[in-house]
């Protein structure tokens, strides 16, 4: 799933490719992906792309006062095409194409019409596309928590968040978009590994019995550094290179069974119904494996 660093890099790449270019049309191949009807997609035709920005994990193409907003969900991605097919895509079928944004070839100075393919892999279709007048009209954006890389995400703001979350597990706190925007399953694993903290630890316990706030500060710094470093590594990369960059720099996420790059212990996994987490017992849980109810049932 694209998270804050990848979406930030996508926005940067697309900003350079699209700025000042006009949209010729937008084709929808998966009708379930389009979540709005007013204004209609044809309202974008002939309008210039003014900017490309990010709200948490939402990508925002600002086009002539309108906002074409995309949430790529778990299996979504965007691919640049130097030349799009002349015929519009066929809806339905097993094609991963969800939408195609075609640029006005006269605005590119080329005889060919380039564009963007918005795709979604897998059978669970969760990719969402919105055309709105204000990004706050998108329900998921309106309820976002603070962005962890902005100046208003201070240590005190983070303390307030953990206080409000109480006994909730810190892994879930980090992932909840209404609490902190942009962190998903992969980077929450990476942040907790960097902070040497169990994913099962409660938010409140990070504040308890800690007169110098060392645990709070350590986790706050891990958030800012882990995400900031990932953004810097991704900066300037083409969208086709971002997935590989992310995977090659993860320390524990998706690495179950491999040695921890810090201590050499074997990275463990806890499986859930539709996701999993990875962690290092030595670095994060005092050497104790975490209970994996799903695997325990299989072994009975």
TrEMBL record:
UniProt KW keywords = DNA damage, DNA repair, DNA-binding, Glycosidase, Hydrolase, Lyase, Metal-binding, Multifunctional enzyme, Zinc, Zinc-finger
Please report the stretch or stretches of sequence annotated as the FPG-type domain.
251-285
- What CDD domains does its record include? BaFpgNei_N_1
State the reactions this protein catalyses. Hydrolysis of DNA containing ring-opened 7-methylguanine residues, releasing 2,6-diamino-4-hydroxy-5-(N-methyl)formamidopyrimidine
UniProt xrefs under SUPFAM superfamilies: Glucocorticoid receptor-like (DNA-binding domain), N-terminal domain of MutM-like DNA repair proteins, S13-like H2TH domain
What Gene Ontology molecular function terms does this protein carry?
8-oxo-7,8-dihydroguanine DNA N-glycosylase activity; damaged DNA binding; DNA-(apurinic or apyrimidinic site) endonuclease activity; lyase activity; zinc ion binding
| InterPro entries (alphabetical) | FPG_cat (IPR012319), FPG_N (IPR035937), H2TH_FPG (IPR015886), Ribosomal_uS13-like_H2TH (IPR010979), Znf_DNA_glyclase/AP_lyase (IPR000214), Znf_FPG/IleRS (IPR010663)
Task: Describe the family membership recorded for this protein in Swiss-Prot or TrEMBL.
Answer: Belongs to the FPG family.
Protein name (Swiss-Prot/TrEMBL): Fpg/Nei family DNA glycosylase
């Amino acid at each position: 799933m694209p998270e804050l660093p990848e979406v930030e890099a996508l926005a940067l790449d697309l900003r350079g490719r699209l700025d000042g270019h006009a949209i010729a049309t937008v084709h929808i191949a998966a009708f379930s992906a389009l979540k709005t009807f007013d204004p209609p997609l044809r309202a974008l035709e002939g309008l210039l792309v003014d900017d490309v920005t990010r709200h948490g994990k939402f990508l925002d193409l600002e086009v002539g006062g309108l906002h074409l907003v995309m949430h790529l969900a778990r299996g979504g991605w965007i691919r640049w095409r130097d030349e799009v097919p002349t015929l519009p895509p066929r809806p339905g079928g097993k094609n991963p194409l969800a939408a195609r944004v075609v640029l006005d070839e006269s605005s590119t100075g080329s005889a060919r019409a380039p564009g963007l393919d918005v795709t979604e892999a897998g059978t669970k279709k969760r990719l969402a596309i919105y055309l709105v007048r204000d990004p706050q009209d998108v329900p998921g954006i309106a309820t976002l928590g603070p962005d962890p890389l902005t100046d208003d995400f201070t240590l005190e703001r983070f303390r307030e968040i953990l206080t409000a979350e109480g006994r909730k597990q810190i892994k879930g706190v980090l992932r909840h978009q209404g609490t902190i925007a942009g962190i998903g399953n992969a980077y929450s694993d990476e942040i907790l590994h960097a902070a040497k903290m169990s994913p099962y630890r409660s938010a409140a316990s990070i504040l308890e019995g800690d007169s110098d706030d060392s645990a709070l500060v350590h986790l706050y710094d891990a958030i800012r550094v882990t995400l900031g470093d990932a953004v810097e590594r991704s900066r300037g990369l083409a969208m086709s290179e971002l997935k590989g960059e992310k995977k090659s720099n993860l320390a524990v996420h998706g690495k179950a069974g491999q040695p921890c790059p810090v201590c050499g212990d074997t990275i463990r996994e806890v499986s859930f119904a539709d996701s999993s987490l990875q962690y290092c017992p030595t670095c994060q849980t005092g050497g104790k494996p975490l209970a994996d109810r799903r695997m325990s049932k299989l072994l009975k």
